[in-house]
Amino acid sequence: MIIFVYKHSFPAMKKNNLIYALMAAVLFVACSRTDVPDSIDVIEPDPSAIPESVEFREITLSASSGDVFTKSSRDASGTFFWSANDEISVFRGASAWKMTSTNTEPATQAQFVGQAPVAALDAPDCGKFYALYPYSEENSFDGTYLTATVPSLQVAAAGSFADGQFISVSCSDNLTMTFYHLCGGIKFNVSHSGITSVTLRGNNNEVIAGKVQIIIDSDGHPQVSNILEGSSEITITCQDGFQTGVDYFFVTLPVEFTNGFTVDFSDGNTRTVLTSMTVNRARFQWSQNAIDYVYDETCDIENAGVRSFLESDSVTQEYQNDTEYTFSRVANFSGSDKPEPVKLTWTGGNASQILLSASPDFSDPIDVSGTTSPVSVYNLIPGKKYYYKVTGNNGNVLKAACITPVGPLRTIYVPYNYSYVRNMRDLGGWNADGGHIAYGKLYRGSRLDDIQRSYNATAKDYLFNKLHISVDLDLRGLPPGSQGGSGEKNPWAGSDPIDYYNFKLWHYLVYGPNQYDSSIKISDGTSSDQYQYAIRRIIGWLGEGKAVYFHCHGGSDRTGTLAFLIEALLGVSEVDLCKDYEVTYYSGSTRKRDGSAGWYYPPLVKYLRTFAPNGTINEQIKAWAKTRYNNSTIDPLSEEEIELLRSYLITTD
93 Cβ partners below 8 Å, 6+ apart? Predict the structure, then answer.
């Protein structure tokens, strides 16, 4: 009689596997004897008893990949790696054990070590070795099926997926093993912060995760044979919030989304895709039309003529080289200054609602009208990201997207009576000392009288509600409510929520007590105090949080001079000061920097150069601003006022 007594010494091995190993060892020893008696009495182990001993041997397993990529984690380039200390389940016959990788950093090939039952290694009839990543005590092999679980609750990993989520399988006659992936997945990203979970589900409730039985086909590839416990949803969580613009991955079972799928974001937004998509084994699907939370779009809002002028290297070079302002022409002006709109586009039918906002939660929404794609929106801020969501008539989200307007200038489009206010633009965007001029605080342009003549409610809505202008500074020399020979007048009714001020400037001239005195102009220094006063008032309004629109008749001379002085105090370069002056020509004005058509820009700058002659134009204009003129009763600007102006208008946002 042969009696085998075992002592249990491997805590990770399951009791029934030890019993099977015991029986295999009995058969192996029995079959190796040449003097086997006619009968052998074998004492069957008591399943309730813990065996006292078993023999193990340390072995090494070499792991490589049969797919394009290897398995455990994923880097930004798309390559998969074995992570340090990865663990796998290994099976042979009825035995199972755990093995751990020895690599200390991610590697495309890895060595695994572990303690394997000697009986499973030496018995001749135990068959092939099977390996399953990741290791779990719940993994099993019954001789036909491997059993493993794709988790329905996954943890985010920036640019990858977390370790222990991407199931891979191998089958081999020996311990040199090639692994193949069971799972595929979907790549996604988010475009704003604050999202802590993302959930994926098929629109036909397809099973995408859960406990499954796996078979290995003739090519060595794993296939799902049976679903034991299925889940139709996968949720990825990120406690600190998903990073914007970074790829993340749902790890799913191979699946065909026959009617598309839906992605829910923790901020309440939902992305519904109605087109079919197949997730194949060992592949991550990416479709810009399907899975990105928001399309990251851009839209050029500058018309071609203005953009060409502002971005021309030859124009820049001419401005840099001609410091005396004596040449006659620098650019071929054509076209108009009308900006291009931002166009919101989508597919899938008409829109029942379009939400647009600078905030991802759609707070402070911007009015959008229209139901068919594309819808045009004017006056958005260049470089600022806007979020929009288009909802169809059946309540489905047709598109959830973000769009960024791009353009050298924020030229403003205020429509009225089949036309628009010409030569109107935001001073924002020009590079200044330590940043750029803030958008939405100072606007320059031409008269608004035609709005009053047509009493165009839409135009006033643009100024009040979209641009948030609260001060109209008229530089034309007209007392409030009066009307000049060319028909200018105060455009605002007493009920309009805007303050109107008039500073009595006429071209480069100051409005005298009884008449327009054509001999008085800033290039002689005799109206400098009036421009200083205008700047001081603007500083005061900015300090009150008000947005100011300053203008004359065409927005060329008086307006251009005031903009030139303010921008120079902010540190705008001389080239950009020149460009902002001369882009006015695109509005239809005949003003050019050569001094033609009554534009006395060269003598103006030559006069300003008499201050701090060896300094930059910025230093010269700062010296001009701090000088008292002709015993004027108007105080010059102080250093503190200039710094306030800079603090209100220079930003890095």
Answer: 20, 24, 120, 123, 125, 126, 127, 143
Separation CA 262–CA 248 (nearest Å): 16
Burial of 525 (C-beta count, 10 Å sphere; 0-12/13-18/19+) = middle
Residue 624: is it exposed, middle or buried by C-beta count within 10 angstroms (0-12/13-18/19+)?
buried
- Report which of 94, 180, 173 is spatially closest to residue 132, judged by C-alpha positions: 180
Shortest CA distance to 302 belongs to which of 252, 274, 339?
Answer: 339
CA dihedral 62, 147, 260, 196 (to 10 degrees): -80
Closest CA to 134 of 94, 182, 95: 182
H or E segment to which residue 320 belongs: helix 313-321
Burial 388-415 (b: 16+ CB within 10 A, else e): bbbbbeeebbbbbbbbbbebbbbbbbbe
pLDDT at residue 328 tops 80: no
Rounded Cα–Cα distance for residues 386 and 392 (Å):
20
- Among 289, 73, 291, which Cα is nearest to 199's? 291
| Domains with residue ranges and CATH for the chain | 60-78+127-285 (no CATH), 294-303+340-409 (2.60.40), 324-338+412-651 (3.90.190.10)
User: What is the C-alpha separation between 594 and 602, in angstroms, rounded?
Assistant: 7
Q: What is the pTM of this model?
A: 0.58
Please give the Cα distance from 585 to 310 (Å, whole number): 12
Among candidates 150, 151, 163, which has minimal Cα distance to 83?
163
- The pLDDT value recorded for residue 21 is 40
Dihedral angle, C-alpha 146, 152, 157, 158, nearest 10 °: 120
Task: Tell me what percent of the residues of the chain surpass a pLDDT of 70.
Answer: 75
| Cα 354-360-362 angle, rounded to 5 deg | 45
Dihedral angle of Cα 384, 387, 390, 396, to the nearest 10 degrees: 160
75 confidence band (pLDDT: 50, 70, 90): very low
Question: Is 440 in contact with 427 (CB distance < 8 Å)?
Answer: no
Segment 135-139 mean pLDDT: 95
CB 340 within 8 A of CB 302: yes
617 vs 53, more confident: 617
76 and 3 in contact (C-beta within 8 Å)? no
Measuring CA to CA, which residue among 342, 311, 353 is closest to residue 575? 311
